[in-house]
Amino acid sequence: MAGAWYGTPPGEAQEVTISTKLFVGNLDFDTTRAELERLFSSVGPVTEVFLPTDRATGRPRGFAFVEFTDASAAAAATQRFDGFELNGRSLRVNEAQERRPRPPSSAPAFVDDWQPPEAMSFHRGAKPKGSRRNLRRKKRSL
After folding, report:
1. Can you tell me whether residue 129 is helix, strand or coil?
2. In angstroms, how far apart are the furthest CA atoms of the chain?
3. Measuring CA to CA, how many Å separate 3 from each of 112, 113, 116, 125?
4. Contact 63, 33 (CB under 8 A)
5. For all residues of the chain together, what is the average pLDDT?
6. Three-state DSSP class for residue 137
7. Superfamily of domain 21-95 in the CATH hierarchy
8. Which of these, 120, 61, 11, lies nearest to 50 by C-alpha position?
9. What residues does each domain of the chain span?
10. Which of 22-31, 35-44, 107-116 shows the lowest mean pLDDT across its residues?
11. Does the predicted model carry a pTM greater than 0.70?
12. Residue 18: CB partners within 8 Å, gap ≥ 6?
């Protein structure tokens, strides 16, 4: 996505902090919250395990978020469990990133083309309304 840009501008200094929340990817769909909590608590005290589910099917989506009480435990878990095999799958563990801000729902599919509603020109005569039959009837009656 050329043109779309999120985060800290390249010229600005970024504050380096180690997060206590980890992203755990490439999970088997049968992996449970209790299994993850038991696995990650071997490194340090776990505050929360969040296993998102699919809205339509209700089954897990294949990733989770694990939050620790301190950053050193989170760093140790990243070192220990990145590439660790659980239920036949190699886990991908790294620091969780903040969610990118979504463009407004009225925005086009491509972020590069998005403009605020004030800049767009909406006027009545842009495209005729109605079915083809009604449009032809209107033209004949003129």
Report:
1. coil
2. 81
3. 6, 9, 16, 31
4. no
5. 78
6. helix
7. RRM (RNA recognition motif) domain (3.30.70.330)
8. 61
9. 21-95
10. 107-116
11. no
12. 71, 72, 74, 75, 95
